[in-house]
Amino acid sequence: MRHIRSMMMISRKVDEERGQRIKDVRTNVLKLRSQEEFAQLLSKHGRPVTRGAVGNWERGAEVGIESLKAICQIANVDLDWLAFNRAPKAGSLISSFDPDQQHEPIDCDAESYARESWTPQVDGAIPELDVRLGAGNGTIGELISVPFANGTISAHRIIAEWLLPEDYLRHEAKASPSHTVIFEIIGDSMQPSFHPGDRVLIDLSQNQFSVDAVYAISDGFAEPQIKRLQRVPFSNPTEVRIISDNPALETFTVELNRLTVIGRVCGHISRK
Question: In what residue span(s) does the HTH cro/C1-type domain sit (predicted)?
Answer without folding.
Answer: 49-82
